[in-house]
Design brief:
Blueprint: E1 2-3, E2 7-11, H1 17-25, H2 27-33, H3 41-54, E3 56-62, E4 65-76, E5 81-88, H4 98-113, E6 118-124, H5 128-136, E7 140-151, E8 154-164, H6 165-176
Parallel strand pairs: 5-6
Antiparallel strand pairs: 1-2, 2-3, 3-4, 4-5, 6-8, 7-8
Helix pairs in contact: 1-3, 4-6
Length: 179
């Protein structure tokens, strides 16, 4: 369990699968997360089983209710790097700063308890809201990968971002002060 200022991060449970399926099949979540096909309940169960083996899948809770997913995967132990993924699955909770709290809470935990040097993530280049959020959390743009996703008959770029342990320290202090 990871306590944020406003959210709580807890391990995914089997009972969460129908909710995760609903979120991931939401057209807005679907588009921005760049999923390739609709998810069945079996797809979710298999994906979560893999996520438990390969990383740390978590549910974001706000006021005691699940509102989204966050987690770490693609650990490269030698390089001390992993990848982060996140989405708020409840559109009514978008724009409330809960994604920020979830990301910073998780980064504070992993940089304190794991021997990581860097955490990375990616976003579709058109997702200006997410890119602003990631930069607020201290992430820096590393690269733009051109035409990496083909959706709705058009190619879309992906942006790769990362944050290093030392870069996160001032963000954490600001977050701890409630700023």
């Amino acid at each position: 369990m990871i306590e944020g200022r406003r959210v709580r991060l807890r391990p995914v449970e089997d009972a969460d699968h129908p909710l995760i399926q609903m979120w991931q099949n939401d057209p807005q979540v679907w588009w921005w997360m760049d999923y390739e096909q609709p998810f069945s309940l079996q797809d979710i169960a298999e994906s979560e089983a893999r996520a438990r083996v390969e990383g740390h899948p978590l549910i974001i809770e706000y006021e005691g209710r699940p509102i989204g997913r966050i987690g770490l995967n693609q650990f490269r132990r030698r390089d001390r790097i992993c990848s982060l993924y996140v989405f708020i699955g409840e559109p009514a909770r978008w724009g409330m700063g809960l994604g920020y709290d979830a990301i910073v809470s998780l980064l504070a935990h992993v940089f304190e308890h794991f021997d990581l040097h860097q955490v990375e993530l990616w976003s579709l280049a058109e997702n200006a809201h997410a890119l602003r959020l990631y930069e607020r959390c201290g992430f820096h743009v590393d690269a733009t990968l051109r035409d990496r996703s083909y959706k709705d008959g058009v190619f879309h770029d992906r942006v790769i971002l990362s944050i290093q342990r030392e870069e996160f320290a001032p963000v954490r202090k600001q977050w701890e002060r409630g700023e």
